């Protein structure tokens, strides 16, 4: 048999072992999890992560954008992160699409495996990007915090994304509300919607926003909610349990016997918090309250 030249041998090895785009996509879909660049105790790059690195390097820009509409949530998440990082996508449109889908994806970072909303991953990818970009040339911790807060507050796209959060009718991940109400003070044209979120949708972060920024206007309505509506409200979903706990803590922070009793009565009546009992009981213990 004729001996292969070195170039011929290298070509044969590359031909036999290189993976096509579709093979890489299929491999990523099979694992069905979004891995960071640091997983496990040893903080290693997993095969899943490395496979996406290979894939992104052989995708054209148009193919990358096309895959942000993939039916597979893992592929969609990976390519969306890459597209945001490299400024190749309309982030507002991308976020709106994921809000409407309202899908979760498994993530693996460090030693933690979790299920996260894709909309939250996209939101925080962009949120972190503009915060990091604001740190160029800044060294002191105080200046860094000020610069990051200003960048988030003044970024036009971030403001539009926060507006999408506020006006969405979906059961959105609680952390997105927490972020958007911390990011900025909204124009008064938003007040009706924020009031609806707070007093009709039982959204704690909207409630907290009104209490902090418009207490003079909303004081009576907010007190009425705590004393009359909150005791009757049923908190069921995972997001609602976060609101429930926050309302409990807000009431206990007042160190008011009337509010303490509202908390005790509510927790004795409702059972949905039992799946998170240690969290709630630790809060009660903090304020020396027992059921």
List the helices and strands and how they pair.
Layout lengths: L5 H12 L3 H11 L2 E6 L7 H12 L2 H7 L5 H13 L5 H11 L2 E7 L1 E6 H16 L7 H14 L1 H12 L6 H10 L7 H9 L4 H10 L1 H15 L8 H16 L3 H13 L7 H10 L5
Parallel strand pairs: 1-2
Antiparallel strand pairs: 2-3
Task: Give descriptors for this structure.
single chain; 291 residues; mainly alpha; three-stranded mixed β-sheet
Q: What is the number of strand segments?
A: 3
Low-confidence stretches: 1-18
How many helix segments? Answer: 16
Tell me the distance between the termini.
Answer: 86 Å
Helix content: 55-70%
Identify the overall geometry: globular
Strand content: 5-15%
Major sheet? 3 strands, mixed
Sheet/helix structural class: mainly alpha
Please give the radius of gyration in angstroms.
Answer: 24 Å
The overall pLDDT, averaged over residues, is 92
Q: List the strand order in the largest sheet.
A: 1-2-3
Order of helix and strand elements from N to C terminus: HHEHHHHEEHHHHHHHHHH
